[in-house]
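WARN no homologs supplied; continuing
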Amino acid sequence: MLEWRLEAYRRWLTMTEPTWARVNYPKIDYQDIHYYAAPKPKKTLSSIDESILKSSRPTRSSASPCVKSPFSKVSSPPPGGEPAANRKIAVDAVFDSVSVATTFQKELKAAGVIFMPISEAIREHPDLVKQYLGSVVPTSDNYFATLNSAAFSDGSFVYVPPGVHCPMELSTYFRINERNTGQFERTLIIADKGSYVSYLEGCTAPQRDENQLHAAVVELVALDDAEIKYSTVQNWYPAIPKEMAASTISSPSGATAAAIIQRSPGPR
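OK structure emitted
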């Protein structure tokens, strides 16, 4: 994995940032971006703070107040919360550079479905990650995909085994909390032969005076007779009143209130 990242970084150093017609934004200083940030734990724990581990990492079973608050603002169930109509939705919450909570993993595992942060999948399922990571969007694809390949820290990993219909919808919530922090999401979803999975991605950030960079790569791998229903909803802060959006996946998607949105490449 280290060599894979270093190869991407060396390639990125030789590349030139793309320019687009009728799109203006301040030049990005890539040396001034924080490439890693993690939510700070509380010093004291209470029954409502059980999601904070002694190792300063939230548990996988519930969410702390700092995690729950943004969910309430966007009317979305927090990790461990009950969605509308008691419908089960497994949620992976990624704040800044780390996944802080993932729900219903045991229930999904019973069905053979793997749903976990990609940082954990790299350790626990290295063969699967090695086989499919970069198979849809290679490190050489484009300027921001190459940067993502070098700098990504977390995102979601999904594997649905052959013939399995995922028993619940999956969702990942990405939020940029810290100032001057770039978020480099990497999501990899694999639907093996004859399987089905529905996945919703949501992205938000608090209002800031300065721009922030969210450079993400999502790879969807549907093998023979498999189906992936993928949707993304991005609700960033209102900044520069300019937007450029282009859907590249044949699935519902929407993005609002961002300074600039660019999606590439398209399906392969």
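Helices lie at 2-13, 65-73, 105-110, 118-124, 126-132, 143-151.
OK
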